[in-house]
C-alpha cells in the first residue's frame, strides 16, 4: 500500500470544480406536492475499515492508453483481453472459477435485493425529474473544516435538502431497477446531470429506461466550504463532518420505502464537485452492511481529497468504477480514487493505473479512448477514459461511456 504515504496529489480546492455551469442534460422537471419525510440524523460514524485516502501515488510509468486488444486469456469465469501481441494463452483458474490471485466475489452481488418499495404504485410522474425535499440535521465536530467568511461553521446544523427523482417512462413497480445517485458541478442545478443515454444523447432516456436516477442539489452556501466558499458546491471537503452523509442516508432510507430498486446496485455518478462527491460516496459506502452500499461510481473530472481535514473515513470493500478526464494526464484528477479502488479490489497489478496492463473498453463507436484495467475482479471492473478536450465539453461521450459501463453491471 505504498500510495498511502502522504501528499503527492494533496488537494487544492475541489479540483477546479467551480468551473461554469454544466449543460443541463436532465430534461424537464416538475415539483412534487408531496413533502419529504424528516431525514434528521446525528453525525454518522465512520463506516468500513477506516481506510485512509491520503497519500502520494507512484509517479511516471508507461502510458498504456495506446495498447490494443490482443489475444484473449481464457480461464475460469473471468476472461480478459491481453495486450497487443499476446499469444492468447489460457489463464490459470482457481477453484472458484476466477483468475489466480483474485479473491472470490461475494455471491450476494450477483443477486437482486429488492427494496421495500417494490410492489408500491409510483406516486409521481415518470420520464421526468420530480422535485422532493427532505430535512436533514447533525452536529459537526468543533474542529470541522467548513468556514464562512473565514469563520468555522461547526456545531449543530439543520437544513432542508432538495433532490429530483426520475422514473423510467414505463416504470414497473415489481422490477428492482438499478438506482443511480447523480450530482453535477458547482453552481449547477440538480437536473444538470448526465442522461446516461446509450446513444450519448443529452436528452435521451437513461439506459433505455432501465434505471432510476436521482439528481442531488448541493447544500446552501451558508453552511460554509473550506475550498470553494459561496460557489454552490457540495460539502465535499469536510471529512466525516460533511452534511452529505446524513443527507445520503436519509435519502436512501426514504427511497427504499417508496421505490422499487435493487439495493445491491446503487451507483454514484457525477462531474466536477459532483464527481468528487461520487468518489467519496464510493469510498465511504462500498460494501456497507446497513443498506447504503455503493456498488460502483461513474465520475467525470472528479477528485478524492488527501488532506486529513477533508478525507472521510473509507471502506476497505471492493467497488466498480469508471473515471473520465481530459488528456492532461493519464488519469487526470481522479488518480487517487483510481489507486484506492485498485487497492481495495485487490487488483494483482498494484495500485497505479499508469503502469497497469489495460485493454480496450468498447463503446460501439471509435469516439475516445476507454481502457479497462486487467487483473482486477470481474465483478468489480475499473475503467479509465481519456477525453480529447476539456472538463465539461464532452457530455455525449461521457453519457455513452457511463451508460455502457453501467449496462455491464445490471442484473443478469
What does this structure look like?
This protein is of the alpha/beta class. The protein has helices at 244-258, 273-285, 335-344, 395-407, and strands spanning 29-31, 69-73, 80-83, 129-140, 147-148, 151-152, 155-166, 177-183, 212-216, 261-271, 296-300, 320-325, 358-360, 369-373, 382-386. The two termini are 34 Å apart. The longest helix is centred in the middle third of the chain and has 15 residues, at 244-258. It has a single domain (37-53, 119-407), classed as 3-Layer(aba) Sandwich (Rossmann fold).
User: How is the biggest beta sheet arranged?
Assistant: 11 strands, mixed
How many domains is the backbone divided into?
1
CATH class: Alpha Beta
Annotated CATH homologous superfamily = Alpha/Beta hydrolase fold, catalytic domain
Cα-based radius of gyration, to the nearest Å: 20 Å
Note the gap between the termini. Answer: 34 Å
Biggest sheet strand order reads: 1-4-7-9-8-10-11-12-15-14-13
Coarse morphology? globular
Number of helices: 4
Strand content: 15-25%
Note the topology.
Elements: E1 29-31, E2 69-73, E3 80-83, E4 129-140, E5 147-148, E6 151-152, E7 155-166, E8 177-183, E9 212-216, H1 244-258, E10 261-271, H2 273-285, E11 296-300, E12 320-325, H3 335-344, E13 358-360, E14 369-373, E15 382-386, H4 395-407
Parallel strand pairs: 1-4, 8-9, 8-10, 10-11, 11-12, 12-15
Antiparallel strand pairs: 2-3, 4-7, 5-6, 7-9, 13-14, 14-15
